[in-house]
Amino acid sequence: MRLQTSWLTGRCRGGGHAVSRPFLVLAPLLALVLSAGVWVAAAEEPAPRLVVLCDDNYPPYVFRDSSGRLQGIVPDQWALWERQTGMAVEVRGMPWSEALRRMQAGQGDVIDTIFFSARRARSFRFTKPYARIEVSVFTHRSLGTIDDVRSLRGLTVGVKAGDVVVERLRNQGVDGLRIYPSYEAIILAAKEDGLLAFCVDRPPAIHYLYKHEISHEFREGFVFTVGAFHRAVRQGQPDLLERVQRGFDRIPRRDYEAVERRWRSAPLRFGPLLSQWWRWIVGIAVGVLALLLGNVILGSRVRARTQDLRQAMEDLRQSLDAQTAADAELRASREYLATVLDAVNDAVFIHDGQTGLILDVNRRACEMYGVAGREQMVGQTVAAGSLGVQPYTAEEAWRRMQLARAESPQVFDWQARRLDGSLFWVEVSVRHAWIGAAERFVVSVRDISERHRAEAERGRFREQLAHAQRLESIGRLAGSVAHDFNNSLQIILGYVDILLGDLTPEQPMHAEIAAIRKAVLRSTHLTRQLQALARRQAATPQRLDVNAALSGLIPLITRLIGEVIQVTWSPGQDVGEVLIDPGQLDQVIVNLCTNARDAVGPTGQIHLSSAAVDLAPGQARLIDDMPPGRYVQITVRDNGPGIPPEVLEHVFEPFFTTKPAGKGTGLGLAIVYGIVKQNGGGVHVDTAPGEGTAFAVYLPQQPSPAPSDGASGGTAPA
Questions:
Q1: How far, in Å, are 497, 523, 529, 614 from residue 518 at the CA level?
Q2: Other C-beta atoms lying within 10 Å of the C-beta of residue 618
Q3: pLDDT tens per residue across span 487-523
Q4: Choosing a second label site near 57 at 20 to 30 A (CA), which of 287, 319, 601, 651?
Q5: C-alpha to C-alpha distance for 664 and 714, rounded to whole angstroms
Q6: Cα angle vertex 41, ends 36, 45, to 5°?
Q7: Which residue from 378, 350, 111 is spatially nearest to 229, judged by alpha carbons?
Q8: Which CATH architecture fits 49-265?
Q9: Where does residue 624 fall: left (phi above 0), alpha (psi -120 to 50 degrees), or beta otherwise?
């Protein structure tokens, strides 16, 4: 029966106290007056009420009787709280998972009979623990020995929805969990549906095993965990939490003990036991009565010792509660630390300060090094992840870690190896720390492979820019010299033409002056080459169909190259047009083909091809730092010996040649480069010793011209 304190008399109803007769006479009148006052007060402002949510299937703490009313230790304790605080309490029982859901949705003020966990601590604030609960694993007698969690792997294990053990069992590899709404539903499944194992809090498990008469079929295998009952409020309500705890702290201990004695000795728990073992119980009762008769003589001494024993038990219980709370706090701290480390985007290693062994890693470390789980890294030496080659050795890593003792942190770049053998660059930060009396190195590792690739790419761009600037400088110098030299040659050529006009072929000096004129013309041709190199050559750009222009040039190239060397031509599809002077295009192709002829020797193959390509920004930058877009690609490929690396970086420089003296001027490829750059394109060389060479010329593709008016077809009206 729930204890309720009368605010009028100060006496308890239902507690066995006598009620005075004057009160019985005046009660109707007083009740009428007070009811009217209460009604008026209620109409003005509703009385505050504390809504408490809890499980309704957890005997002897809370359960429903045959009429559906909540009863047990929890409702009676809240009745004591209500009497101490004067605030009305409404205890609402329901399936545990539903109680958790409603509490998180704000449909209750306090939730009772809740275990502490790190996950729940994100949503709730907890009172001090008030009951120590063992959570045990029960198994059918037909199973073998089940004495630890590993023995449960592969079995179907019954658990209650919303229990903390659901997550903890899964974390320890027990995947065959079957969720039930209540503890009684689990016991019924064990009785009727063949469930052979379940993890249940011990008090309700014992009760329902006897209630449903299957206690002889199941045995308690082992205690999976020990928890503590708390009361909790939602985060952000510290005042409510303090009020709840303060109210329970004010309840006298004798009242708590009275509630405990009432429900732990009630027939609710032992009724089924009596029905099965009444003969044994009667015999035990007779023996107990005999002992009681004998204890009359020693009563006073027994009571004194009993009081001492109770005090010792109370001290032990408080010590166990404190130990349980400390264990819970320790587990929560570890779970919190693991959660924080796993949220860090860098790999984190904890090393022993004396041996260098890895003590712990976070999730990112496993991902970064391609490892399946922490257990593959924990216990390894500092060499894990190092290459073992200079300078990235285990000895060097350990030396740098030890430097952190004097100056922390130590930050350096390191080349690491994944489990699959691939290499990658990381930035390592080593900090020295003392955790209690233990020396530790805390190492954070950041993947900087992209940074290294970007730096390497910037280096290539700097080299390309320096090369282009060098060519540009040489070209400007050559163009300036060629311009002045060409002016002088034109004057000489004018005077020579005047002299030849005054002389007939039979006259003396005519042949010498004609020879002078040939030499001047050759020098004039050389100056044109230099001007083309400097992009100062006068040109008349035109829209050219590349395939048509190259097809017309093939016969000339064949005669120029000779019949011994095989020349092939592969025109691409939809190559389109480019904007260039036709003579310049011919000069580019002829220079590349004659250069290929000299590379392949007396016999060999030269292949000419065309194609339309789209260059992305990254590709265009790598090909002579061109802007991205659509280009026509003209490729001249030979099967010669290729170009060595030390020669390749100079091939476009003017007057650089590997040919013997008198066999080449070193201007052919320089002129090709100058003409292509003058027309907004670029040149790319693909070569390797022994594998031939391919020069690819890229010229911007011209968009197709828009159709002119009247060109849409059809017959014009007469």
A1: 11, 9, 17, 47
A2: 9
A3: 777 788 787 888 888 888 888 888 888 888 877 776 7
A4: 319
A5: 59
A6: 150
A7: 111
A8: 3-Layer(aba) Sandwich (3.40)
A9: left
